[in-house]
Each structure stands twice: as structure tokens, then as C-alpha cells.
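Write out the 3D structure for:
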Amino acid sequence: MELAAHIAAVRAGDGDPMAMIGEFRRTAVLVPVSEGQFMSAEYGGIRWLYAFTDQDALARFALVRGAAPDEAWEYLAVLGARLLDVVVPQMDGPAGVAMDVADENVSMMFPPMKGIVPDEVAPDGGRNGGHGMDGFH
């Protein structure tokens, strides 16, 4: 099953969140770059890296952000595992991945939780002794 199908199943309440995370980790996602940095935003005290399943999803995001329809956006294809295991730990403070955020009905957040990001950078993980994936939907 492809990542988008896993996300749809989890959103519908029929999917396996751990299988979805596994597929995210194995999938190359598109991460927009601005001024040499991965694009991100802070919300709720978390730094969210933007990632997209395909060029169409990235293009919809660009339009929402005010880009012209023919404007080119720089992006890199990055394995989800690399985002979670390498990029997130290098961020200042808690960080996660916001997937396909311009598409309200198919978006998915991969928050900084034990079982998603390395335990040592998960606010609910190694530092604070939380419960990990409990309640992730």
C-alpha cells in the first residue's frame, strides 16, 4: 500500500498508524526548500517541516502560499526516515512533519512522539517518560 493510501485509511479510522509510519519512513517525500533551508512553520510550540507525497500536492501548497501557477519551487526528495531520524533531531526544540498540508482531507501530522521520532528528542519519550503512540490518530 502506498503512503497516501495508508494516510487515508488512518484518517478513516480503519488503518494501522504503525504501518503508516513505516511506509512514511520508506517513502521519498518532497520537501520544499527556501533560502537553503527546509520550509517549516511553528505551531503549538512545535516546528513542523512541510513534506508532500507528490508534485501536485506541493503545487497546491505553493498556490495557497501565493505562488504564481507557473512559479517553480525548489524542493528535495528525502526519505521519511531521514527526516525523522536525522533532520528532526537537529532542530531546536520539538519538531515533526506536516504532510500534504494544503489538502485538508488527506493531510497527516507526524508529531514529535516516541515511536515516530527518536526517543531522545520526543517530548513524551526518553526525557519525560511518556507513553509514545497512545492516542496517535
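The first helix runs from residue 3 to 11.
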